[in-house]
Amino acid sequence: MSTNTTTTGCIKTAAACIIGDEILSGKTRDTNTNFLAKYLFDLGIDLRRVEVIPDVEEDIVETVTRLSRKFDVVFTSGGIGPTHDDITYSSIATAYGDTVEYHEDTMRRMLRISPHLELTEARKRMALLPSRSEVFFPSEEFWVPLAVVNQNIHILPGVPRIFQQLLTDFRPQFETLASGQKFHRKLVGTMWAESKIAKILRDAQEELGERAKIGSYPKWNNSKVNVVISFVGKDEGLLEEYAKKIALLVDGFEITEEHDA
């Protein structure tokens, strides 16, 4: 098991696998996906897929291997706690013909950062990592590791505060691997009906091709804006040009992201 190495290559696309029966049953609200989407957007990494699956080994194996093949980087959330249904580490190890073993650095950090908690067998279970994984400790606040399997599968906890802190502290590593071109978003509001602007937007999207994406989002029972039109891409000047062009065609006006919330 190696520690503190880095994945090589430029990251352009990403996927997320949210693991947990509690998400699928509605008991727990998934906020990690929203955080991850904003995090990757700001890095210029295109989040292309999010899948939510149960705590079932067969589903975990199939999903993570498929996503790992198709996308540059994969993030998992959940299933790495101390109880019997926390099977993410062992399932991903199985997916790549590996086994889990106790990670000594993780157990040492448990004792140092949480000395008031006894290192029981249940707690030690959270240090059973895939033996060939790369292990990082991005946060000094938490003992929880970020384990990387198959060079691009990043295994993260489901607890939102820890999930978010680990990614925030790991950001410098992703910045070196991303393309360096961040995404930008321009928003235009209009009081016209979505059906009335559909052809205008379709024609503009055909002109833009893959250089940018245009989306439209109705705002129900809103006296200030009926539809918000979104322009997303990496060429900020191009987005500005088309936002102004479309605004003129739909009697629109520029709006900020906070006013769109």
Give an overview in words:
GO terms for molecular function: FAD diphosphatase activity. It holds the Pfam family MoCF_biosynth. Residues 15-177 form the MoaB/Mog domain. This is Molybdopterin binding protein. There is one protein chain. The protein has helices at residues 21-24, 32-43, 57-70, 88-95, 104-113, 121-124, 160-177, 194-208, 236-249, 257-260; strands at 2-3, 13-19, 46-53, 73-77, 100-102, 128-130, 134-136, 146-149, 153-156, 184-190, 212-218, 227-233, 253-255. The chain has 261 residues and is α/β, with parallel strands linked by helices. The longest helix has 18 residues, at 160-177. It has 10 helices and 13 strands. Strands 1-7-8-9-4-2-3 form a 7-stranded mixed β-sheet, sandwiched between helices. Mean pLDDT is 93; it is low at 2-8. It folds into 2 domains: 13-177, MoaB/Mog-like domain (Molybdenum Cofactor Biosythetic Enzyme, Chain A, 3-Layer(aba) Sandwich), CATH 3.40.980; 184-254, Alpha-Beta Plaits, CATH 3.30.70. It is elongated and about 65 Å long. It starts with a strand and ends with a helix.
Rounded to the nearest angstrom, the radius of gyration is: 22 Å
The residue fraction in helices comes out at 25-40%
The CATH superfamily of the largest domain is known as MoaB/Mog-like domain
Major sheet attributes:
7 strands, mixed
Q: Helical stretch count? A: 10
Low-pLDDT parts are: 2-8
Query: What is the strand arrangement across the widest sheet?
Result: 1-7-8-9-4-2-3
Q: What is the CATH level 1 assignment of the largest domain?
A: Alpha Beta
Count of domains: 2
Give me the count of strands: 13
- Percent in strands: 15-25%
